[in-house]
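Next comes a single protein record:
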Amino acid sequence: MSETLRPLPTALSLAASGVPVLPLRRGKVPFGNCRSCAGNACGGRPNMKHPGSCRCPGVCHAWAAATTNPAALTSPLWTAAWRRAVSVAYHPGGAGLTVVDLDNAAAIAWAHSALPATRTVPTTRGEHWIYRGAMRSVNSVRDGVDIKSTMAYARYLGPGTGTMTALPDAVRALAVKEPPTVRPASHALTVPARSGDGECRHRTPAYLERGIAMAEQRITDARSAIHATVYRTFLAVLSVHGRCGCLTDAHMARLFTAAQAKGETPRHCTDAWTNARTTLGL
């Protein structure tokens, strides 16, 4: 955002045009969860499907806190946040928009060759290409390319130039990720067994299934520090099940799929899994 733009007046102008907005503090991050909302105690997770369902009066749910309501934006709690804000963010999907965030010169060159022209906004390191239409948000669809639409926020950096065009299939296709490369599910992961020549030391398959399901849920519920959460979850799974031979490629694929749904790339998943195994000496 241009340094000449003032956060609250800019936010009110955007809200009047139907764009849901929220304040960002230094570091280009939203204001953190309040005590009432810590750990989603207030029902923050339902916001993932029903933005605004949380009754908390604070400004604490990132993209789900974005609003077009001028009364909310000028309430005492929001006003206090705006006084500390250094920039304005908006929820593209809530405005029926998709932002293709191009983070370097190579990404911009690729966009010019692969995507239809649309409204563009300069950023610190690259450009935002804004299309009319909403879709799923995905990070790192290509080197230096993120898609920000539903369940995401983007900084407002000015009106931009050019005519906004309809969201093309070429952008929608970027959100279709290839599944992680794994061996057939019928073969167990090759890890040295602690004892029993690879025989599972757990009494019932339900124990393993419950552990994998809990790991998937832990990744899915993460609202920040996704890389760290994925690594710690992989580490926890491998520390319990990594030496007995009961983990299969199907289990690993389930964990990778959960991580990729949170924006991780297949490479990030593979690296986290490898690092976790190395840490445990597997």
